Amino acid sequence: MNAVERAPLAVTCGEPAGIGPEVVAKARAVAPEVPFFVIGNPAHFEGFGVATRVIDDPAAAGTDALCILPHDIPGPARPGRPDGAQAAGVISAIARAVALAQGGTASAMCTAPIHKKALKDGADFAYPGHTEYLAALGGVEQVVMMLACPELRVVPATIHIALEEVPAALTQAGLEATLRITHAGLRRDFGIAAPRIAVAGLNPHAGEGGTMGRQEVDWIADLVARLAPELGCFGPLPADTMFHAGARAHYDAAVAMYHDQALIPIKTVDFAGGVNVTLGLPFIRTSPDHGTAFDIAGTGRADPTSMVAALRMAWDMAGRRDGRG
Ligand SMILES: NC(=O)C1=CN([C@@H]2O[C@H](COP(=O)(O)OP(=O)(O)OC[C@H]3O[C@@H](n4cnc5c(N)ncnc54)[C@H](O)[C@@H]3O)[C@@H](O)[C@H]2O)C=CC1
Ligand SMILES: NCC(=O)COP(=O)(O)O
């Protein structure tokens, strides 16, 4: 155990052809206070100017070097060119991190980005992203994807589905569960005693009284009003005017109706420093907000800021949950 007797973080390598290995290696140097080990092929972490140490036991992880717990992901990392033979190992590394986090050998997990199509093509990965895969591994029906930076927290109520599927996927039960998980996460993991949650409408101008779509008047407004006393939620608000600085001062998190409604504002406000955190799991998981960035993989230009923020957030959450945060 490290100085505070908290287990290290388990970090997954993500897609070897992407910038995951580079940002993980660089993060080791930028966040010396966070103990972590990465699950992956040690060869994929060479060449980034960071000392590495192969370990066979997570308890041996330290902050002296990039500690690597070897995992069977065959072949070299080929920047920008995913290798289908590596897909199964990339997926099983995630499952291994979950097992370590659930067993307490890791205090939390942090995932480097995967390339969803590469995993589907290479290993028939059945999930659209980590979020859904982690929910299945954790045995929970619904989780919440939150992206957080110092200025803004956002939650999409529907996640990795086509835009045309959003209206049917939005249900009263689903939105209520999203609001409850968000509220609980803000209290437990962010230390906000009485969270304020803004809820976006689905349609332009939040439907403008039913003239531009009916979901708001048919059920969203009633649901939000019913839950307001318990969850501190309000809305539905027109999505186009709820993300400017003045509006953000009135809430701790914004629940949006679909992926891009939530992610465009936060990636615009703080692309470098945003963190993706999955709420509602029986373990802690964070991730950088960016993807595999094949266009710059292998160039040395990957910015580790978001990975560093993700590591720090996971470490802080673990501390908060064990009472030492
Ligand atoms: N948590 C995860 O596993 C995530 C995975 N993805 C996946 O990543 C793949 C590529 O997604 P894109 O939409 O292209 O987004 P992306 O985030 O990989 O890249 C978008 C743009 O931002 C740049 N960029 C991204 N991260 C950067 C960094 N750390 N430093 C400097 N520049 C950076 C890229 O070079 C690119 O120009 C897709 O398969 C997507 O599904 C995307 C987001 C999260
Ligand atoms: N756009 C966010 C994203 O793709 C995150 O996906 P994941 O964390 O579920 O893999």
TrEMBL record:
Organism of this sequence: Jannaschia ovalis
Further remark: The active site is located at the dimer interface.
Keywords: Cobalt, Cytoplasm, Magnesium, Metal-binding, NAD, NADP, Oxidoreductase, Pyridoxine biosynthesis, Zinc
Subunit annotation: Homodimer.
Lineage, opening ranks: Bacteria, Pseudomonadati, Pseudomonadota, Alphaproteobacteria, Rhodobacterales
EC number(s) given by UniProt: 1.1.1.262
Catalytic activity field: 4-(phosphooxy)-L-threonine + NAD(+) = 3-amino-2-oxopropyl phosphate + CO2 + NADH
Record: residues binding a divalent metal cation: 160, 205, 259
GO molecular function: 4-hydroxythreonine-4-phosphate dehydrogenase activity
Gene: pdxA
Positions contributing to substrate binding: 130-131, 267, 276, 285
Its job: Catalyzes the NAD(P)-dependent oxidation of 4-(phosphooxy)-L-threonine (HTP) into 2-amino-3-oxo-4-(phosphooxy)butyric acid which spontaneously decarboxylates to form 3-amino-2-oxopropyl phosphate (AHAP).
Main location: cytoplasm
Cofactor binding notes: Binds 1 divalent metal cation per subunit. Can use ions such as Zn(2+), Mg(2+) or Co(2+).
Alphabetical list of SUPFAM superfamilies matching this protein: Isocitrate/Isopropylmalate dehydrogenase-like
Domain of life from the UniProt record: Bacteria
Protein name: 4-hydroxythreonine-4-phosphate dehydrogenase
Enzyme's top EC category: oxidoreductase
